[in-house]
């Protein structure tokens, strides 16, 4: 019996890229790198995309969350890690309506991001504006620089 295979020129690349992405994530975890980023390049298929910046007294995480409602986002902080978990829900269709084309995805997501220093979990704040989540993570007192005065002898 003769079997027919459908040629997909992108199929083999998808598998290879997902394996490379898995390896990159594992290496990042082992090396203590910020999750989701190696050499400044985002991994394929990661959602949400994030930026992490640092000031003297805080970290600022921004994440792209278009179409996600604030009540569908959960943020957690444990030690040097901040988690962003949630879901982008599909729109309600009118009774009897069907999709003609459906290209948009409605994924559940869960990102855990490593930070270089501990944060004060009690003072963390977050807001979602125009599809961009901004999380302010004040550094823990132990992580802040201390000024030491020098006395003359």
TrEMBL record:
| SUPFAM superfamilies for this protein | HSP20-like chaperones
Q: Which family does it belong to?
A: Belongs to the small heat shock protein (HSP20) family.
> What is a single Pfam family found in this protein's UniProt entry?
HSP20
In this protein, which residues make up the domain named SHSP? 41-153
Q: What is the protein's species of origin?
A: Desulfarculus baarsii (strain ATCC 33931 / DSM 2075 / LMG 7858 / VKM B-1802 / 2st14)
- Domain of life, per UniProt, equals Bacteria
Which InterPro entries is this protein grouped with? Answer: A-crystallin/Hsp20_dom, HSP20-like_chaperone, Small_HSP
- What is the name attached to this protein's record? Heat shock protein Hsp20
Keywords noted in UniProt: Stress response
The reply to whether Coiled coil figures as a keyword in the UniProt entry is no
């Amino acid at each position: 019996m003769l079997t027919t295979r459908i040629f997909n020129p992108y199929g083999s690349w998808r598998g290879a890229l997902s394996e490379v992405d898995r390896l990159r994530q594992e290496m990042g975890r082992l090396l203590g790198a910020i999750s989701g980023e190696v050499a400044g390049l985002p991994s394929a298929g990661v959602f949400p995309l994030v930026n992490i910046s640092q000031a003297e007294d805080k970290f600022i995480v921004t994440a792209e969350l278009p179409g996600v409602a604030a009540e569908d986002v959960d943020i957690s902080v444990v030690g040097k890690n901040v988690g962003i978990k949630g879901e982008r829900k599909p729109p309600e269709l009118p009774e009897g309506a069907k999709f003609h084309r459906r290209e948009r995805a409605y994924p559940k997501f869960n990102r855990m991001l490593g930070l270089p220093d501990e944060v004060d979990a009690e003072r963390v704040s977050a807001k979602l504006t125009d599809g961009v989540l901004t999380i302010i993570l004040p550094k823990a007192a132990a992580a802040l620089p201390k000024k030491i005065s020098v006395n003359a002898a």
